[in-house]
Amino acid sequence: MIGRLEGKVAVVTGAGSGIGRAVAERFAAEGAAVAVWDVNAQDAAGTVDAVQERGARSAAYAVDVADSASVGRAAARTLAAFGRVDVLVNNAGVFDHYASVPETSEEQWDRVLGINLKGMFLVTKALLPALLDGGGTVVNTSSISGVVAGGGGIAYTSSKHGVLGFTRQLAADHGAQGVRANAILPGAVETPMTRPILERGDAAVLETVRSVPARRHAQPPEIAHLALFLASDESSFVHGAGYVIDGGWTAL
């Protein structure tokens, strides 16, 4: 059977672990070549190994998405190696450990917004000409913190609300030019970024996870299934949408 992304080239940021790695592996299983972007070169190399085990072409690029020069270099190298980009998954992100305004330093605010929101802008800007050239798809990782409070601190929640606005405006600006943009809004997902929070046993967090209708947190491959849908032609009429995938958290 022909994969749903057969012949496509995908760039996945934050692909060294967690949701990003699961997305890279899922895309590879559906026939895509995958450029793995991550700030951690060793983690990125590990994802490349996993992708290549599925028979797909892949390469790793060490990228700081909050730095325009780093993004520019990675974009140039990716296009030189793969020749095109059909799918962009903006997944790189950091957490703020539920810090409130008084607990958040200016440096922490700049770091969280720089990676979670500015980084998305820089990567999209660098790759948009390639996406426009072939009619591409952008999938942005937001969070339930993009629509409600309580899933993170002030910086994280602000950044994830911004991701949803960025996605909608991107769709409005470039949908008619053949580029679709949509967002994924996960709830609690067990990843290397969130595992310390879950293992620490914060009572409020654990109680929230236990109280959602699904009665558990998600695993990264479950989020990757949704990313595949939004990246594929199966979602051809979906523009500017935000898909909540939270085990029912926001339904309560």
Automatic annotation (TrEMBL):
Organism of derivation: Streptomyces ramulosus
InterPro entries to which the protein is assigned, alphabetical: NAD(P)-bd_dom_sf, Sc_DH/Rdtase_CS, SDR_fam
PROSITE patterns in UniProt: ADH_SHORT
Residues spanning the membrane: none
Pfam families from the UniProt entry: adh_short_C2
NCBIfam families: PRK07231.1, PRK12826.1-2
The name this protein goes by in its record: SDR family NAD(P)-dependent oxidoreductase
Keyword annotations: Oxidoreductase
Superkingdom per UniProt: Bacteria
Keyword Mitochondrion annotated: no
Protein family: Belongs to the short-chain dehydrogenases/reductases (SDR) family.
Keyword Oxidoreductase: yes
